[in-house]
Amino acid sequence: MKATQNHLIHDVIISGAGPVGLFLACELALAKCSVLIIEKAESPHSPLKQFPFGIRGLSAPSIEALYRRGLLQELELHKRLKSPHSTIAQAQRKQAGHFAGIPLYEDNIDTTQWAYRLPGSTETSLMSEMKEIETVLTRRAEALGVVITRGQAITNVHQTADEVTVQLGDRSFKGKWLVGCDGSRSVVRKTGGFEFAGTEPEFTGYSTQVTIADPEKLKPGRNLTPTGMYLQSQPGYIMIQDFDGGAFHSSEEPITREHVQEVLRRISGTDVTISALHLATTWTDRARQATTYRNRRILLAGDAAHIHSPLGGQGLNLGLGDAMNLGWKLAATIHATAPEGLLDTYQSERHPIGAEVLNWSRAQVAIMKPGPDARALNAIVRDLINTRDGATYIAGRVWGIHTHYNLDGHHPLIGHSVPNFEFENGTPLGELMHDGKGILLDLTMNASIKALADEYGNQLKYISGSIKERLGITAALIRPDGIIAWATDKEPNCNDIRKAAGRWFKYILK
Fold first, then answer.
1. Beta pairing, strands 306-307 & 287-290
2. Torsion sign over Cα 261, 265, 268, 270
3. Cβ distance 327 to 31 under 8 Å?
4. Pairing assessment for the beta strands 196-199 and 287-290 based on DSSP bridges
5. CA 416, CA 487: separation in Å to the nearest integer?
6. How far apart are alpha carbons 240 and 262 in whole angstroms?
C-alpha cells in the first residue's frame, strides 16, 4: 500500500499525549509554535489513571509550573481531599509522603529551614489524579491550537538536517523537531538511536483492585514483611512488591486471580482469599536513563528519557520539569531567538536532576529488600526520618524544594525557582507569568533597566514596583520557566544584566 504524506510541516511533533507531552505542547503553543501530538491509545480514559490508581503527588516545582500558567486552579481533586469530610483530612497526623514506605508527617517538618519559601507561596505538595491532569492539559492544549491525533502509533522515524519524518503505518507526518514523550517503552527513543543505560529491577510490583473474602487477615497501610511488601490503601486496593528480580513483569504472562492470590499470600504470610480480580497491572524498579536527551532534531522527555520505581511518585514531577525546561528553549530555537547553545542546556540542566531521582529510587529499594542488612538500614533511616531535621531534609527532596540548576552567579537565589513575591497592591508575581515570557524584575524602578528590557523585544517583559518581602534582591532576571538566571542585592548594573540576559535571550538589533 502506498504511504500517504501529510505535507504540512509542523514546528514540533510530540509522541505521547500523557501529562508530559500535553504540558510540553501547551508550552510550545503558548510560544506560538505549531504542534502535533500523536498518541497510540484510542481513548485517553483508563481505569489506571483514575482514583485511586491514578493518584499522584505533585511536588513544589510542578505546582509552581501549573500555577504560573493559570492551570492549578482547574485541578479539583486536591481540594476534595482537603475537605473535612475526607478520610485523609480526618487523620490525626497528616502523612506528607514517605521514603521506602517510612511515613513522613507534616507536623515534623520545619519549613523555616527553607529560606526562600515565602508564606504566600504555592503549596509544597498536592494530591492529584492522572486523569484530571490530562483532562485539564488537553483542554488547554486544544484551546491553544494543538492538534491531537489518537489511535495511531509511530512505527518509524527518519531525520535529516532540516526536519523529521514520522511513519504511522501507511501515513507519515513531517516536523522540524520531534519530542518523544511516549513512556518507558518509547518508540521514539528506540528508533531515534538513543542509548538507555541503567540497572535491572529487584522486584515486580503489582497494583490491583480485588474482592477479598476475608479482608480482616490483611493489615491496613504499608507492611514490610520477611518476603516483600504489601499496601492496603483502602479496602479492595492492594499494592504488592515481590522481590523476584522483576521476573514476572518481564515474562508478560497474564495477571490472573490465582497468581495475585499466590503472591499476596506469600508476601503477607496469610492464607487470605481473593474471590475476584477486577483490575491489575505490574511495574518494576528498573532504573534507566538516556545518556543524552537529544539526537540532532529528536529529543526525549519524561519516562522516554528516564524510568525508575514509582516509589514516592516522582516520575510525573520529573517529566513535568522536563517539559517546563524544554518548552521555552525549543520555542526560542524555532523562532530564531535562541542564543547559541540554549537548547543544549536542556541536557545539561535536566540530565543531572534525572540521575538524582534514579538514585533516590534505588536507595529506597535498597532498604526495602527482604533480609537483615536492608532491615538494619531501614531501622536507621526510620530513626533519622523521625527527627525534625531528618524529616525536613527528606521532605525537601521528596517535594522538590531543593531542586535547582547550577548557573553562574553569586546571589544565592540564582538557579532556583523564583519565590512568589507579592507586590504592595496584593498581586503575586506568579499571576504575571501566564504568558510564558521572561521577566526583568526591577525593584529600583530604574528607567535604564526598562530600556534594556526593550532591547530583547517580546522575549522579556519589564516589571517594576515594590514587593513586601524582597529576600535580599533589588533586581532579578527570570527565565520563562520561572528560574532566576541573575539577581543582585546591590544597585543593578545594566552591563551585568545585559551579560546575563545574553546567555538566555537573543538581542534584537533595532
1. antiparallel
2. positive
3. yes
4. antiparallel
5. 11
6. 11
- Cell numbers standing for residue 43: 481513548
With cell 536507595, the residue in question is: 363
Instruction: Name the helix (H) or strand (E) containing 439.
Output: strand 438-442
162 three-class SS: coil
* Helices (H) then strands (E): counts for the chain: 14, 24
Q: Is 230 helix (H, G, I), strand (E, B) or coil?
A: strand
Report which of 212, 166, 159, 211 is spatially closest to residue 187, judged by C-alpha positions.
166
Answer for the pair 205, 284: CB distance below 8 angstroms, yes or no: yes
Per residue in 68-110, pLDDT (tens digit) is 999 999 887 655 555 443 444 444 568 888 899 898 999 999 9
Is pTM beyond 0.90? Reply is yes
Residue positions counted in the chain = 510
Sequence-separated contacts (24+) of 67-72 with Cβ below 8 Å: 67/122, 67/420, 67/430, 68/430, 68/433, 68/434, 68/482, 69/26, 69/27, 69/30, 69/140, 69/433, 69/434, 69/436, 70/434, 71/136, 71/137, 71/140, 72/122
How confident is the model over 167-203, as pLDDT tens digits? 998 899 999 999 999 999 999 999 999 999 999 999 9
Task: Quick: pLDDT tens for 350-387.
Answer: 999 999 999 999 999 999 999 999 999 999 999 999 99
Q: Which residues are registered as beta bridge partners of 102?
A: 99
- How far apart (Å, rounded) are the C-alpha atoms in residues 266 and 248? 15
Q: At what angle do helices 314-334 and 60-68 cross, to 10 degrees?
A: 40
CB 404 within 8 A of CB 416: yes
State CA 191 to chain mean position distance: 24
**CA pair distance 166, 174, nearest whole angstrom:** 6
Q: What is the DSSP letter of 62?
A: H
In three-state form (DSSP H/G/I as H, E/B as E, the rest C), the secondary structure along 183-206 is CCCCHHHHHCCCCEEEECCCCEEE
Query: Is residue 485 classed as helix, strand or coil in its secondary structure?
Result: strand
